[in-house]
Amino acid sequence: MTTVPGEAVPEPRGAAAKPSGDGAPRPVRATRPLAARLAGYAAGGVMRLFLLVVAVFWLVPTLGLLLSSLRSPSDIGESGWWQVFTKPAQLTVDNYARLLDDSTITHSLWSTVLITVPATLLVVVIGSLAGYAFAWMDFPGRDWWFLLVVGLLVVPVQVALLPVSKLFGAIGVFETTIGVILFHVAFGLPFAVFLLRNFFAEIPRELLEAARLDGAGELRLFTRVVMPLAGPAIASLGIFQFLWVWNDMLIALIFADSGSPPITVALQQQVRQFGNNVDILAPGAFLSMVIPLIVFFAFQRQFVSGVMAGAVK
Predict the structure, then answer these.
(1) Is residue 82 part of a domain?
(2) What distances in angstroms separate CA 231 from CA 91, 139, 147, 254, 305, one per listed residue?
(3) Closest Cα to residue 136, out of 203, 56, 190?
(4) What digits encode the pLDDT tens for the residues 206-264?
(5) CA 181 to chain CA centroid, nearest Å
(6) Residue 123 and residue 188: Cα distance in Å, rounded?
(7) Contact 95, 69 (CB under 8 A)
(8) Residues contacting residue 258 through CB under 8 Å, at least 6 positions apart
């Protein structure tokens, strides 16, 4: 390599310190790229502060709903919910007392439970059995059937509303709780099978073979070995399905019994009938939101473990 006299030769990256003229080592300074420096700043306090600000703004509507549900109808009509910070005497639980005395709302909450719990349990049980079969059992066309299940993930719910309505009308389950449950189970199973099959496939084969050598059949292997290991994945699936069914209004609006609608449809009917009855809508909406939050936080650790399962080999 030739150099021009007087031209400084750049130090190679990662080179060790060279001695200076007086014999002392001269450190070689490594310059970080601009993008790396910006990424380092973003990963520090600046990004944390930004995320905190975003979280605060994200929670403002929820806070407003909570405070509105704790104010009297006259206070709601006269001023905004932020007035409670200067007038905390406005807070009251009378709205919740009147809400729980309303038989329509309490009956709709019970109807929502009767729809959500069976739809969640059926999806978890059937999805677990199918996921185990796709992961560890050999049967003709297994891979093709699994591809069909994956393809069903992209089918929108709106496509099936009309044909399923005709089918439910023919078999006599249209506008019934059973019809709503069947619809949610049918559209929840593709995701359940996909999620649990991928989780079950990560179980070491040696563990299953050892159980088979001890005389365990497929059913005992599934219940005694696989299911205890699948707790995080089952919790994640259960939370997803519970939230989807509990917060659904489209399917309930079409297939549910008009005499016993779930809470989402009941609140929508309150808006249509009275329009501005915020003293009923605010506590009802917040109550319907609190129950899924309780379920989520109760299984938060299992949910995080199930989502991260299989991410690291």
Answers:
(1) yes
(2) 42, 26, 25, 34, 9
(3) 203
(4) 888 888 888 877 788 888 888 888 888 888 888 889 989 998 988 988 898 888 889 88
(5) 19
(6) 6
(7) yes
(8) 175
Same domain, 146 and 280: yes
The C-alpha atoms of residue 284 and residue 166 are separated, in whole angstroms, by 33
What tokens does 103 get? 């038989």
Torsion of CA 262, 265, 268, 269, to 10 degrees: -90
Residues listed for the chain: 313
In the chain (313 residues long), the average pLDDT of successive 10-residue segments reads 50 50 55 65 70 84 85 80 82 84 85 93 93 87 88 88 90 90 93 90 85 81 84 86 90 86 84 65 84 79 57 45
CATH code, domain with 187: 1.10.3720.10
70: domain range?
Answer: 39-92
* Residue 271 near residue 281, CB atoms below 8 Å: yes
Domain total in the chain:
2
Cβ–Cβ under 8 Å, residues 217 and 136: no
Q: Minimal CA–CA distance to 295: which of 249, 262, 256, 246? A: 246
pTM: 0.74
